[in-house]
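Quick check before the chapter quiz. The format below is the same one you will see on the exam, so make sure you can read both the input and the output lines.
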Amino acid sequence: MPPFHRERFRVVVDSPVFQRAVIAVIALNGIALGLETSPELADRHATAFLVIDRVILAVFVVEILLRIVAYGKAFFRDPWNWFDLIIVGAALMPASESLSILRLFRFLRVLRLISVVPGMRRVVSALFTAIPGLASAVVLLLLSLYTASVIGEQLFREAAPQYFGDLGRSLFTMFTVLTVENWPQVAEDVMAKEPLAWIFFATFIVITAFFVLNLLIGVIVSAMEAEVNAQRWKEDQELELQQHTAVMDEIRALSERVDRLAAVLPMPVDAPPAEADAPSGGDRCSCGQDP
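Here is the expected output.
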């Protein structure tokens, strides 16, 4: 396709109106999928839901094709475009009775909202950027959880076998305590036979819920700040490029005007050489000399 036509498709695809229309279709798809979960509505309006699903899928296919035409090979260099392509492609696969699980891919189309909205895309990108730091913090959290589970199993096996009877139960109990959900009930049952058990639970909550979890949040926030700063730098570079291009275009236009004016205006005529004030050697004044 000629670059001129490709550029026209790119203007259409990148326009705010086109983006809002895609977001509206994704939102409509989410609402339709939510209503379809109701057995009564699904039986009463089965045909309508089927038509809506086919129309929305056709819109998504047309959108993907337009973006491929607009960007060409550059379309496949963006991971988010692969994300959209996989989701839409999975929805196109026929779902027979033996492959009914493939129908669940229809619900994944709502996730396309992440790739369409720039703010959500930055958040997800920041999460992926934070994976190295998150891995260390998660390992620290799991190590704390495992250590506390082993200690709890050794200390409270006899006092509360329903919570600390073996390592598996102890791990689940300490994970429940980590979520700070219903942990007072666990602590009270253990403290009924071990009054000093509150020290163990309080220490575990302070270390994990307050320190380690806040460390995880800090890593995520730092990654999001870095992503936002990188996006701002990119936008500043694009703005500077636009301003530079505008200035160079203005200078080029002024230069062309000057050249046109120089071509239209008449050339100046050279003035005759001025006579010397002093007389030449042959015309010397003979005043005061005898004839």
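If your answer matched, good. The mean pLDDT is 80.
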